């Protein structure tokens, strides 16, 4: 691909630019000063939303506003649709792309965490071909992912939700459209009104989106009654790793995460068929 | 509906919601802000700023920067000190006040993080920023004075050793016998309040172009400011350029809120840079620079107590305010005015006479703190109104009842406050009654009780306030500051009978030009669409105070009114000569000379103008038509025109998350004669939003080392439309008798009490849980702490 070649020939002093909604602010602040900007916004293979058997393929260049309105995403990967209205503001959603958001991997971003909750796989291209990385292995550290320098995120592949699946999303933010104080998306599979599988992904609580694994373990095999929810809430804080921040202290993040988890699990419990 | 109201007279514009004639132009993108202006041969400056809050400058190396592409000049504090004399932000009437001399750029040390140190001038801003990165400054870091208590310790590092301490000003008020009153009182409440720093965040940042033309010795400055005359005076005196050779033009201004009336170091430097280069130099603060160099507001810690008798009659207040102002007092208005208004406005709506207060204004290694919309008001209002609510709790009185029991009666004027403010006529009780009806208070209380049983926690808070407007010379002039309290206007009739008014009050988006047009139209007797109002250019308008302290309508408006009347008399004199009638029997309606008694049209104003300008030969001998007038007006009655009002806030608190939904805000306000209801209401709404910003969102947070930790719009939260409630406004009109117009100020009323009403509402919502909050902004973290969750 031309874009991959351009990166190679720049001596790695280049940046891909998709919607520019994270990159341009960084350039304006002089935090980054690449010699070359490679505009990927018109690469056709990175576009489109398509159902491929049990998987939904979402092109990396799908813009936030398209995620918000797309009927296939609404049906098959609904956590993205639920999260989209909380991503920034209309002007930014008109330009920003889901691939840019996931590649940028801001730990406070909605889409990376929903990628984790949905158990999606990320298709990455380099000059030798493409590979798929599971969401659980994709988010490495603060703004760091499995994408190596010069590689491109091509598409997100989401296993489609099935009957028996329930989900919920919410975030706590001081102003609508802000990065959240704490946010969470949950995808659960129920068998006989008991939790068979569950993925709880928090954001803005550490250096990457984080799964609340201890809480998940408690919930598996259980009905979502008040005592079970309380037990999951009790351990949820331990899974998180909020950094010292004088504006939002870690104790507050943990408290809010527990409150949010309780509310979302309550919501899921009430979704009984 | 047959009775005629005052609005049914011809040309009756005062009191009408006339839309702003300049709004269309701005909406159409035809605004001309300083940023839009490009002058031939113009250069751009970028500043290298201090990363330290307090440090000695050891050396500056600009060799590499000077070699960078497009660089025309790299200048340091020493270079500019050769051209510009130092300034000191003190006023004589604040006895004992001190502040160190300031220069455009520092010579040997920096005193806040973000202070500009070196100026780099280049062909474009981008090139200047590139070169600024190549300047290396060696600093020797000094201990930073950040905390207001640590700053006053005997062994604290002294920021300006020549001043001997970090205390800028110490003020005291004591009406006597306070301790005895508190000892004998049935109830005493007390609280420690914290008011965080916040800042203006104008849509248009600070912007300036200085253009020094050595061939004429002429300095022209395009400056985004609300006070061009003040800056004309400052540039003239500090750069030694005769005043007649200094022209300051304030074009369209994108918000100011007091922030753009202070002398900023970068702005002063731009003038010197232009003189050094003989070329125009532009500086536009970017958002990050705005956060570390625009003035901040507030920053007070107030310990206060209030005493009341067994019936809930307030007996006395005892207040101690410590406020941090940065390393300097701002020039030329000083940073003491805020604290001065805090400790003089305490308890202003109430009848009690016993008051003691101590004000300490403290230097610290932060950016300067100074006047911003509603100077001192929200602090005085919040402290007073929270304490009043605490007395209400003790005495089991309703929040309305405690206030009506203690407020000055509407027929008790004129009277004075315990701190010496003279009130001509206020209307606290009328406003309170109107507010209670507007908000349907009893229903809200019943609803609150019912919802509490369902786990929904709503709060209702009210706050009464007094606002300082229309200041006379006692405000600045007597303190030695060359800031005018008078205004001037020139009105002329053009040959086709249009009217041109140039006036010294300025337009910042608040609608000054609109109301001046309304006043001139009404008092001259012409249609308002034939009037053009010009503001903001020291070469073409008379000298005046311009815009500050809510004086535009009251003082500028009265100036326009008197000037229009003078011009009308001149017109009627010529008309009488032409019509061979007596001037007293004539009047002007809609641009026609009419018979005063019958309103019968006699002659068009345009015809008078045609004759006066082109056929003066046909006028009777000795008649010299005076179709232009110049007129000045300075307030001479009360030192200030105080206004009053009351606000109520209704909100819902999520007691698990600390997040707040503001449901509604009501304001009843008395600004005297309302000239334009639309503009008055929008002033109040905008002010309320800034007050709610301070209450819930806005705070400049510093680390222990004096670093601002949230200086960007991603981290510093301004209130946005979604979070703002509907704001319902009512009016009571008590015109001032000091002027013919009767208008007082209104621009700060919204900000004065919104945060106080919000704070009372939050405490009301938290009542079942026992916690209280006495700090703004009321962030989720602070609320959760008060509720015991973290
Ligand atoms: C005011 C504001 C508020 C915002 N609020 C939120 C919010 O609440 N929640 C939220 O999640 N986000 C928010 N954002 C960020 C926004 O969602 C960005 O659009 C998104 O993070 C990046 O997408 P982009 O297409 O604009 O990427 P760009 O800015 O173009 O790129 C971002 C980074 O990703 C890389 N990149 C982009 N696409 C690819 C690709 N296909 N393969 C490999 N690398 C790639 C780029 O090289 C760059 O390093 C906000 C942004 C702004 C300006």
TrEMBL record, chain B:
Residue span, Aldehyde oxidase/xanthine dehydrogenase a/b hammerhead domain:
28-143
| Keywords, ordered alphabetically | Molybdenum, Oxidoreductase
Q: What is this protein called?
A: Carbon monoxide dehydrogenase
The terms under GO molecular function for this entry are: iron ion binding; oxidoreductase activity
- Lineage: superkingdom: Bacteria
Coiled coil in keyword set: no
Spell out the InterPro entries in the cross-references.
Answer: Ald_Oxase/Xan_DH_a/b, Ald_Oxase/Xan_DH_a/b_sf, Ald_Oxase/xanthine_DH-like, AldOxase/xan_DH_MoCoBD1, AldOxase/xan_DH_MoCoBD2, AldOxase/xan_DH_Mopterin-bd_sf
């Amino acid at each position: 691909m031309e874009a991959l070649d351009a990166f190679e020939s720049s001596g790695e002093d280049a940046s891909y630019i998709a919607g520019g909604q994270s990159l341009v602010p960084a350039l304006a602040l002089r935090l980054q000063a690449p010699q070359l900007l490679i505009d990927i916004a018109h690469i056709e293979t990175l576009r489109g939303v398509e159902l491929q058997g049990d998987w939904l393929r979402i092109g990396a260049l799908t813009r936030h506003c398209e995620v918000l309105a797309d009927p296939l995403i609404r049906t098959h990967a609904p956590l993205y649709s639920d999260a989209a209205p909380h991503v920034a503001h209309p002007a930014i959603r008109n330009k920003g792309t889901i691939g840019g958001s996931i590649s940028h991997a801001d730990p406070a971003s909605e889409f990376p965490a929903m990628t984790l909750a949905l158990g999606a796989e990320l298709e990455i291209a380099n000059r030798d071909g493409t590979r798929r990385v599971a969401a659980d292995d994709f988010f490495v550290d603060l703004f760091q992912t499995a994408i190596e320098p010069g590689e491109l995120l091509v598409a997100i592949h989401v296993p489609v939700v099935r009957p028996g699946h329930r989900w919920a999303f919410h975030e706590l933010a001081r102003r609508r459209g802000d990065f959240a104080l704490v946010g969470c998306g949950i995808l659960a599979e129920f068998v006989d009104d008991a939790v068979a599988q569950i993925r709880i992904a928090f954001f803005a609580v550490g250096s990457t989106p984080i799964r609340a694994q201890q809480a998940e373990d408690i919930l598996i095999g259980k009905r979502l009654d008040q005592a079970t929810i309380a037990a999951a809430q009790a351990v949820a804080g331990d899974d998180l790793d909020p950094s010292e921040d004088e504006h939002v202290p870690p104790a507050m993040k943990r408290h809010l995460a527990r409150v949010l988890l309780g509310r979302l699990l309550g919501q899921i419990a009430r979704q009984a068929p | 509906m047959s009775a005629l109201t005052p609005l049914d007279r011809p040309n009756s514009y005062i009191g009408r919601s006339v839309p702003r004639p300049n709004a269309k132009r701005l909406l159409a993108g035809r605004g001309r802000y300083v940023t839009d202006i490009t002058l031939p041969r113009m250069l751009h400056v970028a500043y290298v700023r201090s990363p330290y809050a307090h440090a000695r400058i050891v050396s500056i190396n600009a060799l590499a920067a000077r070699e960078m592409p497009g660089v025309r000049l790299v200048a340091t504090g020493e270079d500019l000190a050769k051209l510009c004399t130092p300034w000191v932000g003190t006023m004589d009437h604040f006895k004992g006040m001190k502040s160190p001399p300031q220069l455009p750029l520092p010579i040997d040390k920096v005193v806040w993080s973000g202070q500009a140190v070196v100026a780099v001038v280049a062909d474009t801003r981008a090139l200047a920023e590139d070169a600024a990165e190549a300047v290396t400054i060696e600093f020797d870091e000094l201990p930073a004075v950040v905390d207001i208590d640590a700053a006053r310790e005997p062994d604290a590092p002294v920021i300006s050793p020549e001043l001997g301490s970090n205390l800028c000003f110490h003020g005291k008020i004591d009406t006597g016998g306070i301790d005895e009153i508190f000892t004998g009182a049935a109830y005493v409440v007390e609280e420690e309040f914290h008011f965080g720093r916040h800042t203006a965040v104008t849509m248009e940042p600070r912007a300036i172009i200085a253009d020094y033309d050595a061939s004429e010795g002429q300095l022209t400055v395009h400056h985004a400011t609300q006070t061009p005359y003040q800056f004309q005076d400052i540039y003239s005196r500090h750069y030694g350029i005769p005043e007649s050779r200094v022209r300051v033009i304030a074009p369209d201004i994108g918000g100011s809120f007091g922030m753009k009336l202070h002398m900023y170091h970068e702005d002063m430097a731009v003038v010197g840079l232009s003189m050094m280069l003989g070329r125009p130099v532009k500086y536009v603060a970017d958002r990050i620079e705005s956060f570390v160099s625009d003035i901040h507001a507030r920053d007070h810690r107030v310990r206060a107590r209030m005493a009341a008798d067994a019936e809930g009659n307030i007996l006395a207040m005892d207040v101690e305010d410590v406020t941090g102002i940065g390393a300097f007092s701002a020039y030329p208005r000083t940073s003491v005015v805020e604290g001065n208004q805090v400790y003089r406005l305490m308890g202003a709506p109430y009848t009690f006479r016993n008051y003691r207060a101590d004000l300490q204004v403290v230097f610290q290694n932060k950016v300067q703190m100074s006047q911003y919309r509603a100077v001192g008001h929200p602090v005085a209002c919040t402290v007073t109104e929270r304490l009043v609510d605490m007395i209400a709790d003790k005495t089991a009185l309703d929040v309305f009842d405690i206030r009506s029991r203690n407020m000055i009666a509407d027929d008790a004027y004129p009277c004075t406050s315990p701190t010496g403010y003279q009130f001509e006529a206020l209307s606290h009780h009328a406003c309170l009654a109107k507010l209670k009806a507007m908000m349907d208070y009893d229903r809200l209380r019943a609803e609150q009780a019912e919802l509490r049983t369902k786990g929904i926690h709503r709060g209702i808070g009210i706050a009464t306030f007094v606002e300082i407007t229309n200041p006379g010379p006692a405000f600045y002039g007597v303190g030695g500051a060359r800031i005018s309290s008078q205004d001037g206007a020139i009105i002329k009739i053009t040959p086709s009978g249009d009217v041109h008014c140039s006036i010294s009050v300025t337009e910042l988006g608040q609608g000054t030009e609109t109301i001046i047009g309304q006043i001139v139209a009404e008092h001259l007797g012409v249609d308002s669409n034939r009037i053009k109002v010009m503001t903001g250019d020291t070469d073409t308008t008379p000298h005046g105070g311009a815009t500050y302290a809510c004086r535009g309508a009251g003082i500028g408006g009265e100036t326009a009114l008197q000037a229009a009347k003078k011009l009308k008399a001149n017109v009627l004199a010529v008309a009488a000569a032409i019509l061979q009638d007596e001037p007293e029997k004539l009047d002007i309606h809609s641009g026609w000379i009419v018979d005063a008694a019958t309103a019968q049209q006699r002659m068009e104003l345009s015809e008078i103008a045609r004759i006066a300008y082109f056929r003066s030969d046909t006028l009777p001998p000795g008649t010299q038509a005076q179709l232009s007038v110049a007129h000045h007006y300075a307030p001479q009655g009360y030192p200030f025109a105080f206004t009053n009002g009351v606000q109520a806030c209704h909100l819902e608190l999520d007691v698990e998350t600390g997040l707040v939904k503001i449901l509604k805000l009501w304001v009843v306000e008395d600004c005297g004669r309302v000239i334009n209801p639309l503009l008055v209401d929008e002033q109040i709404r905008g002010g309320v939003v800034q007050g709610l910003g301070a209450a819930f969102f806005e705070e400049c947070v510093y680390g222990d080392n004096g670093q601002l930790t949230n200086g960007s719009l991603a981290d510093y939260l301004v209130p946005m439309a979604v979070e703002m409630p509907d704001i319902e406004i009512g009016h009571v009109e008590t015109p001032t008798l000091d002027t013919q117009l009767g208008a007082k100020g209104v621009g700060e009323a919204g900000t004065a009490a919104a945060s106080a009403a919000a704070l009372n509402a939050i405490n009301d919502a938290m009542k079942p849980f026992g916690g209280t909050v006495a700090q703004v902004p009321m962030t989720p973290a602070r609320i959760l702490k008060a509720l015991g969750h973290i």
